[in-house]
């Protein structure tokens, strides 16, 4: 048996989205409706009712992990998602390239959303070494634009430190402070503070930055870390179910969650994570990947991006592109041997423009599901489905249709 | 007020059971449909979505206990279910009579599923005494065929030991080993190993076994234990609700769970646990029992047995016999004063032949339920019911219709 999970980020909406309808209700999506018609339908609270899910906690919960138990922070997923190696006890921090003045007062937390020179900046920052801490390994990698991640590895480190990032402009960067009274927290705070100062020394006079200043652009003259976290202890999907799978996604966060759950990461050609992403290629790659592996997780991001942009038409258009992707999946998956789940990780309504707590529609299709007569896929129609309401646990339910996993008890 | 819980083991199914229908959908069950019509209907995950329930964990959860907190293993329920006394700290093990050769290599873990001489074997094994451990009481009882249970009682015992049972043939029996570094675990492993060796001394030359060998049958020449467990700490139904009840079942496991929850155990005439079980007698005995007690739990097993046998026709036929049982209950219960719940503990679909994670239909009937208009009792029809989806907790919901139990908070 094979399994496919498709998550459209921020898929859900509100009646205020578009003329009294949610974007899903307003979209023309005959293949999503066909999927509903051959599936069992319901609603998903990715975490639980009344909780506004973050993307990381939502995906953990969808994968069957309890975020209340395992969640340590977003930084680890970002670091893993951009390809960094992370081991138990490593301290991961998300970083921005920022612009500060001579007094280390923050001018722009994102250095003008810098969109060039990432490799040059990364090379410069590779010079980060602290003579005072020869036993601590320091790794840095850029992600997109101003984004990156730091990983500290060594004895006697702790994630219990406050952020150097003041999270606003016009104030001096903060000193990281220990949040608990341990030697490890004191030492880690000192290291991070030393790194921030050292990054200024390495970046301020970089010819690349001098050139930006000449052009009137903001220099990327400081590495500003936040959100220290150690890796969560996740029992991998191999251990839990004895299966091998892959993630097909663009966003580092989603790739990071999936890799920490034991999935490999494949990239579809032309997939960007934006509204123009060639998501059909994800479906084509998924069908190809299932020849070798048991499970594929496809993540598409455009629905969430359009919601954050308050752009109903863009969200509707992207849902119709998801519909084309499902035209391909409906035709090319081996439906005698495959169970598929499609849902979102949360709602991103147009007016609010951020994640909200309402449940999102969900459908499971495949030979073992009890088809329930629902023939439209949206927030209202699926409430009449046979599935009822799930709180996370999408992968365990999907995999249980494939009879993967041990009996609990005897 | 009175309460009745009826569990049909492995009741649920899949559309692959029988011509696109589940066995419940395929069965002609007018009285189950009548029950749905006078009840409130929904779906039950006996534990939670995506979890394949064992029979023991499922029943604990249906009774309102959290298996993640209380479950210690199946052995205790089996021991209690066959009538052994079990107290706090006792170490219980399930046993098989097995066949081994002179080098203690396992020839058959079940001594040819021996179906004779259980009393003689039990008497022989009653000679188990270990001079080296005069303070440890050793109790043994046979169950059915090759099955039995051992209970060790004394100071300084532990259930944290590995199985002597190698769980396969052609290899020497294992030595029980401590799983934790405690004196109690070391001592218990030594005792169990000594008991296994002593059982061979007692059984190998038993005239009964010599006779079997002469006939070409496998001798029951070793007692092979597995699954050491101490009793779970369950707050009894008397303590929780102040009520007295009984279980009417055949399987030792179900009787064991019920007795540990504080129920008495009654046996209906002609009830076997098999497909030919006279289950109507369980309903007759239940109605009789309710004259004296507050609550009766009826367990029937044939649905699960037929599912394990991949036999759709047998499962459908057994559901139709359950329907006859409900014809009696509908007629003879005092419906002004009684609430009844009917459900399964998990699905046992025909093709898969083992427990699966899908929810099973559930109905509550009685004067306080809100009748919801559902008039068919199966996996699909009850999704439209008024109850929604339960995760275990069937007894607490049933008893709450009777207003049994304390307010939580003030």
Structure report:
The structure is a homodimer of 410-residue chains. With 410 residues, chain A is an alpha/beta fold. The first copy, chain A, contains 14 helices and 14 strands. In chain A, the strands form two sheets. An eight-stranded mixed sheet of chain A has the order 9-8-10-1-11-12-2-13, sandwiched between helices. In chain A, strands 3, 4, 5, 6 and 7 form a five-stranded antiparallel sheet that branches. The radius of gyration of chain A is 23 Å and the shape is globular. Chain A starts with a strand and ends with a strand. Chains A and B meet through strand 13, helix 14 and strand 14 of A and strand 3 and helix 3 of B.
Sequence-ordered SSE layout with sheet pairings:
The structure is a homodimer of 410-residue chains.
Chain A: E1 2-8, H1 23-26, H2 30-37, E2 39-45, H3 55-62, H4 67-70, H5 75-81, E3 91-100, E4 106-108, H6 118-125, E5 137-142, E6 147-153, H7 183-203, H8 207-214, E7 222-229, H9 237-241, E8 245-248, H10 252-260, E9 264-266, H11 280-289, E10 295-300, H12 302-308, H13 312-332, E11 338-343, E12 360-365, E13 388-391, H14 394-401, E14 407-408
Parallel strand pairs in A: 1-10, 1-11, 2-13, 8-9, 8-10
Antiparallel strand pairs in A: 2-12, 3-4, 3-6, 3-7, 5-6, 11-12
Helix pairs in contact in A: 2-13, 5-10, 11-13, 12-13
In short:
2 copies of one chain form a homodimer. Chain A has 410 residues and is an alpha/beta fold.
């Amino acid at each position: 048996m094979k399994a496919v999970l498709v998550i459209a980020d921020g898929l859900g909406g509100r009646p205020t989205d578009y003329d009294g309808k949610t974007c899903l209700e307003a979209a023309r999506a005959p293949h999503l409706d066909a999927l509903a018609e051959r599936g069992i339908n319901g609603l998903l609270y990715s975490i639980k009712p009344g909780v506004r899910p973050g993307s990381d906690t939502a995906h953990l919960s969808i994968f069957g992990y309890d975020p209340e138990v395992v969640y340590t922070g977003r930084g680890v997923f970002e670091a893993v998602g951009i390809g960094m190696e992370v081991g138990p006890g490593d301290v991961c921090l998300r970083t921005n390239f920022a612009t500060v003045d001579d007094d280390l007062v923050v001018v722009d937390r994102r250095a003008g959303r810098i969109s060039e020179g990432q490799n040059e900046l990364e090379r410069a920052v590779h010079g980060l070494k602290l003579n005072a801490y020869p036993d601590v390994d320091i790794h840095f990698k850029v992600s997109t634009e101003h984004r990156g991640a730091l990983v500290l590895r060594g004895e006697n480190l702790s994630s219990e430190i406050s952020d150097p990032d003041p999270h606003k402009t016009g104030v001096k960067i903060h000193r990281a402070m220990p949040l608990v009274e341990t030697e490890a927290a004191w030492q880690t705070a000192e290291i991070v503070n030393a790194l921030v100062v050292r990054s200024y020394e390495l970046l301020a006079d970089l010819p690349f930055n001098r050139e930006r200043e000449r052009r009137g652009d903001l220099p990327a003259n400081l590495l500003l870390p936040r959100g220290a976290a150690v890796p969560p202890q996740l029992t991998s999907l191999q251990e839990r179910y004895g299966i091998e799978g892959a993630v097909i996604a663009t966003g580092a966060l989603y790739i990071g969650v999936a890799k920490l759950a034991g999935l490999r990461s494949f990239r579809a050609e032309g997939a960007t994570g934006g509204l123009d992403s060639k998501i059909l290629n994800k479906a084509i790659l998924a069908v190809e990947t299932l020849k070798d592996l048991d499970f594929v997780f496809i993540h598409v991001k455009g629905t969430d991006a359009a919601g954050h942009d308050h752009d109903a038409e863009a969200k509707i258009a992207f849902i119709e592109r998801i519909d084309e992707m499902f035209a391909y999946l409906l035709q090319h998956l081996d439906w005698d041997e495959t169970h598929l789940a499609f849902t979102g990780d949360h709602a991103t309504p147009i007016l609010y423009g951020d994640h909200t707590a309402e449940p999102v529609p969900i459908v499971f299709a495949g030979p073992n599901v009890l088809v329930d007569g629902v023939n439209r896929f949206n927030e209202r129609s699926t409430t009449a489905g046979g599935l009822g309401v799930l709180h996370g646990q999408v992968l365990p339910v999907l995999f249980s249709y494939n009879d993967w996993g041990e009996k609990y008890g005897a």
